[in-house]
Design brief:
8 strands, 16% strand
């Protein structure tokens, strides 16, 4: 007879958590008639130390989203022996840290023209363009960054002519609702992308987190940002 404690530990292992999330992603893709390859899983590692990320890489996860530059730099240094890791920056961008943020494979959170200009300058200095998403504030929440839907067209027009910042999609963090209520917000971001896409340039939609990523996939997400479902509660949280 299996030891109950061992069984619980096995079910809570990085391998088991990743497998469970992958199964949910695959099921959501199946329900919406999408290929699994059309959705990328970004592990949100705020509050997680480098050892936890190392275990996740061993389990098969290689894309991580970081919120804070200082934490990201420390983890990147600690995991420098793992060249397969792809780092995304998903947090609020301070212009004085744009040079560091520009080193990410993808920046999810360009919120206004000033931030975009700082990233473009950083890209020009390093001689490589920065790839980024525009964060849209769907509900005009004062606590969140992001461009208003009505202002998205003007921001895109200002940025499309540039060489060093390449906008490849949109991102949103809607107000927390139940997954089905969130569906309308995810659909709104997808429809906003469809209204503003030019020659297929806005190919990415970053939306959906642990509580609602399946709904986001059903509404067109290409990037889902999952933390708790992969890693458990952050340190300091119950």
């Amino acid at each position: 007879m299996a030891d109950p404690l061992s069984a619980r530990l096995a079910a809570d292992s990085p391998n088991a958590r990743l497998a469970a999330v992958e199964a949910r992603i695959a099921a959501a893709c199946g329900r919406s008639g999408r290929a699994r390859s059309g959705v990328r899983l970004v592990g949100v590692t705020k509050g997680m130390d480098a050892d936890i990320l190392r275990e996740a890489v061993a389990a098969g996860l290689t894309t991580f989203g970081e919120n804070y530059v200082q934490d990201w730099m420390a983890k990147r240094a600690a995991l420098a022996d793992l060249p397969t890791i792809e780092w995304h920056f998903i947090g609020r961008i301070q212009r004085n840290k744009a040079a560091a943020v520009a080193e990410a494979t993808l920046v999810h959170s360009v919120s206004d023209l000033r931030v975009a200009t700082a990233l473009a300058t950083a890209g020009e200095r390093r001689g490589r363009p920065v790839y980024a998403l525009i964060q849209v504030n769907l509900d005009a929440e004062e606590s969140k960054d992001g461009v208003a839907p009505a202002a998205l067209g003007a921001l895109l027009a200002a940025l499309r002519a540039g060489k060093w910042l390449r906008i490849v999609g949109l991102m949103a963090i809607p107000a927390p609702l139940d997954p089905e209520a969130m569906r309308t917000r995810f659909r709104a971001l997808r429809e906003l992308r469809e209204r503003h896409v030019v020659d297929g340039d806005l190919r990415e939609l970053s939306m959906g987190m642990s509580a609602d990523f399946e709904t986001a996939i059903e509404e067109g997400a290409t990037l889902v940002r999952v933390g708790t479902a992969l890693f458990g509660p952050r340190k300091g949280k119950a």
